[in-house]
# Entry
Amino acid sequence: MESNIAPVRYDRESLLDFFNKLEPLKKDIVSFARTETFVITVKRNELLDIVNQYDNCLFFVIKGFIRGYIVEEGKEITTSLNEEQRLIGKIRNPSVQQALYNEYLQALEDTELLVVPYNIIDGLYTHFPETNALGRKLLAIHYNLSQERSILSRIPSAEARYRQFLANHPYINNRVSVKFLSSYLGMRLETLSRVRSKMKQKD
Amino acid sequence: MNPEKNYSKDKWAIYNGFSPVITAFKSFHALSPEIEHIINTQTFPVIFKKNKFISSPIHRNKYIFLIVKGLVRGYMKNGADEVTTWISRENELVGNIRNLMDEESESEEYVQAIEEVIAIAVPHTMTRQLYDNFEIANYVGRQITELYYLQACERAFISRLQSAERKYLRFIKSYPDLVNRVPVKYIASFLGMRVETLSRLRSKLDQ
# Structure
């Protein structure tokens, strides 16, 4: 779901455009959302404090890059790479009895995030029922992204994983260090470097 | 791909007179009689025999399916290997959301019945009709998509765990009903480990 034509700049307006293209939003919805949501900046390498300061919120990347990672047996494993217009944060669903997992969110560039508290989302769904359609479509996009990750991590060959990743995300490649990208792709740093140079030679 | 249509004039006779899809949706929100009528009219029961395909890259279908009975898996081909990416069971919805939003989009996914499956076919045309005309449909659809998304996150997470044992322990925790029901080869594929490894783990943990 990656756009092939990058907007001239990424800001709150381009995020709003993105939403409007999915589902046209009436002025009163936009006004409500503008007053009730806010923008924060997370500096490069900083962690987003979703435990204390921003629990019960979702976030959209306005500008920048966030990596998600889990800590498994003392090691960081990069689980998601999130560029502009991506939704990040814990999706809640109280009816699901599954254990959750802890994903840490770290900025890889200075990043602007739109913070949307869950009670505001609830307010939107209640007072502007048409926002359920937008919610549905955003969730469908992110479901597909999660599916892609699911497939990616199950492909046995490192080279095939890298190719699949490139096919889905041709533009992220340059924004992530080899260290984090190799972790995301479930391979050693040396392996990723080798796969990359091998591919360059072929081209 | 062509599901055996399993109905006569009174297709809902053995389902208490109405489509099980109504019960499934009502768990999220009450439905209007008009919506229920649309669902009763346009959804229909189907059967997929064991190992038959529900959809494939060549034959994309235009339905989401509510599983009434049986197990379904989704897999991708990687050369000669089949990589199982999800396994679904009764009361779960199976189908390609991308397909719903964009019917021309390509998918490399195979969806296969791994037991005989009785399901209710939910046409994309009906889903779109409901979304276009009823607020409640979007509310229910949003909640269902949320659930789908959570399930996808769990599947992505489990495959990132670092040891076969941790993956299998997580599998037991998250999919307790599948542990003794799904053939070992599909569990192993889903967890990204060899069958031998999984068998060894299972005997170890049984003790």
